[in-house]
């Protein structure tokens, strides 16, 4: 089944403890991206990747890192999480770019205490 | 930056057509208009997209004005399961994707 998977789905952590949220797609998509969603602010793009080893900042990249060593995986790294990064995170992929149908993962709900 | 404008919320009676408007006045000539919806806190789901002509699929219809500055998503026979936030998408010059705040559609029984 074609899908985007994220792990973990739920995570509660403490300030400063490094964490990684994984994202994987099995559709051989070139483009992958991360979003965060907060009440009243909608979906905001954090980082995106047009292809392997190519990543770019979205609208809210501060406090996040990403890597794209393989086409199928696009992990989101929080080196030193803070409470303002408590949010619902979504990974998405598409065949070739932003102007293409996006397929979203199920979401990761992160709480930073 | 390019962005879309949608009503914050709308109500529609079950079984009636739901018409959701979107303004995308800065969309460029070769960019598609995409619509997605998000049910509760699930991942957004693709609905439909179009460039110039009206489009229809099994989920919805999309009407795009001739000047491409606005569009309307039509759910022909809304059901309770169509209650969701509907997003009209534009993208800015750097190929990022900008979601607006969307329209929260309430289907009334």
What does this molecule look like?
The complex is a heterodimer of chains A (113) and B (109). Chain A is an all-beta fold and 113 residues long. Helices cover 0% and strands 50% of the residues of chain A. Chain A has no helices and eleven strands. In chain A, strands 2, 4, 5, 6, 9, 10 and 11 form a seven-stranded mixed beta sheet that branches. In chain A, strands 1-3-8-7 form a four-stranded antiparallel beta sheet, with no helix packed on it. In chain A, strand 9 and strand 10 form a beta hairpin. Chain A starts with a strand and ends with a strand. The model of chain A has no long low-confidence stretch (mean pLDDT 95). Chain B has 109 residues and is mainly beta. Helix content of chain B is 0%, strand content 48%. Chain B contains no helices and ten strands. In chain B, strands 1, 3, 4, 8, 9 and 10 form a six-stranded mixed beta sheet that branches. In chain B, strands 2-7-6-5 form a four-stranded antiparallel beta sheet, with no helix packed on it. In chain B, strand 5 and strand 6 form a beta hairpin. At the A-B interface, strand 4, strand 5, strand 9 and strand 10 of A face strand 4 and strand 9 of B.
Helix amount of chain A: under 10%
Q: What fraction strand of chain B?
A: over 45%
Find the count of extended strands of chain B (DSSP E, 2+ residues): 10
Major protein interface: A-B, 29 and 22 residues
Largest sheet descriptor of chain A: 7 strands, mixed
- Write the H/E string of chain B, N to C: EEEEEEEEEE
**Distance linking N and C termini of chain B:** 39 Å
Supply Rg of chain A.
13 Å
Order of helices and strands of chain A: EEEEEEEEEEE
The oligomeric state of the chains shown is heterodimer
Derived from helix and strand composition plus strand pairing, the structural class of chain B reads mainly beta
What is the overall shape of chain B?
A: globular
Structural class computed from helices and strand pairing of chain A: mainly beta
Round the Cα radius of gyration of chain B to an integer and report it.
13 Å
**Alpha-carbon distance between the termini of chain A?**
36 Å
Q: What form of chain A results from the Cα inertia axes? A: globular
Query: Which regions of chain A contain 5 or more consecutive residues with pLDDT less than 50?
Result: none
């Amino acid at each position: 089944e074609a899908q985007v998977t994220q792990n973990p789905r739920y995570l509660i952590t403490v300030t400063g403890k490094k964490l990684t949220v994984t994202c994987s797609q099995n559709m051989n998509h070139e483009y992958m991206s991360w979003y965060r969603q907060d009440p009243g602010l909608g979906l905001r793009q954090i980082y995106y990747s047009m292809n392997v080893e190519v990543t770019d900042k979205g609208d809210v990249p501060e406090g996040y890192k990403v890597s794209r060593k393989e086409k199928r995986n696009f992990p989101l790294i929080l080196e030193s999480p803070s409470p303002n990064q408590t949010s619902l995170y979504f990974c998405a992929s598409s065949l070739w770019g932003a102007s293409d149908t996006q397929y979203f993962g199920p979401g990761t709900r992160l709480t930073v205490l | 930056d390019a962005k879309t404008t949608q009503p914050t919320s709308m109500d529609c009676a079950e079984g009636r057509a739901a018409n959701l408007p979107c303004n995308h006045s800065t969309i460029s000539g070769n960019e598609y208009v995409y619509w997605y919806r998000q049910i509760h806190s699930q991942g957004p789901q693709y609905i439909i997209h179009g460039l110039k002509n009206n489009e229809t699929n099994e989920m919805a219809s999309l009407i795009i004005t001739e000047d491409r500055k606005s569009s309307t998503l039509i759910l022909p026979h809304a059901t309770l399961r169509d209650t969701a936030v509907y997003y009209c998408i534009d993208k800015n010059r750097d190929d990022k994707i900008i979601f607006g705040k969307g329209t929260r559609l309430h289907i009334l029984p």
